[in-house]
Design brief:
Layout: E1 5-8, E2 11-14, H1 49-57, E3 66-69, H2 79-92, E4 97-102, H3 106-110, H4 115-119, E5 124-128, H5 134-141, H6 149-162, E6 166-172, H7 177-190, E7 193-197
Parallel strand pairs: 2-3, 3-4, 4-5, 5-6, 6-7
Antiparallel strand pairs: 1-2
Length: 203
């Protein structure tokens, strides 16, 4: 059975979809069928909200301070379930912090601006920057929106910053140090916090 909720290094994660517009060269999905304490993160069929709700009802959130939408897909590819799930969890545990790990391509995926609605239910937005220009970004992410994705990701990030949420931008430590520093400047220019993720740790 596929895990909808799983833990990794003590953190709680929501795996609500396997769909993603990218096929990143460094994606942890290429390393195995699961991470952390999950047994399997690949779905035979995309989960319904009722299935996600049942997983939430069966999970002990009493000691969970922060939960993350991540998993083996881009959460905004399941936009309605993302919003519904966030609202449902907040109703159960109002003081919980919810974080979205995203490629920042939600506006392209859903065909409309989405930052305001996401920021209304998610506390922390973590956007994968990955590279420093459109050409390099397309090459490493192998996304389905070539020539458009990089600028859309930057705009989505800026829109989230304007909403007043905590916004982070991340890169994976597989790119050269000079590119990491260029990424830092892009991030800081948008008003977001910069984080370098470890490929080996899968976070």
């Amino acid at each position: 059975m596929t895990d909808i909720i799983y833990t990794l290094e003590g953190g709680t994660y929501f795996n609500i979809t396997n769909k993603c517009p990218c096929n990143c060269a460094f994606c942890i999905r290429s390393k195995g069928d699961a991470v952390g304490e999950a047994k399997r993160l690949w779905f035979d069929k995309e989960p319904s909200f009722d299935e996600i709700k049942n997983a939430i009802d069966s999970y002990d959130f009493s000691r969970v301070e922060t939960a993350v939408f991540c998993g083996y897909g881009e959460p905004t590819n399941a936009f309605d379930n993302l919003i519904k799930t966030a609202k449902y969890v907040k109703n159960i545990k109002p003081d919980i912090k919810l974080r979205l790990n995203t490629n920042g391509l939600s506006d392209l995926i859903n065909g409309r601006p989405t930052a305001k609605e996401i920021c209304g239910v998610i506390d922390i937005i973590s956007v994968s920057l990955n590279e420093t220009d459109s050409e390099k970004y397309d090459k490493i992410t192998r996304n389905i929106f070539p020539g458009k994705a990089f600028d859309a990701m930057l705009k989505f990030t800026a829109d989230c910053v304007k909403e007043g949420n905590e916004v982070r931008m991340t890169v994976v430590d597989v790119i050269p140090k000079e590119e990491i520093e260029k990424s830092r400047k892009i991030c800081e220019g948008l008003g977001a916090k910069f984080i370098v993720r470890s490929f080996e740790r899968g976070r």
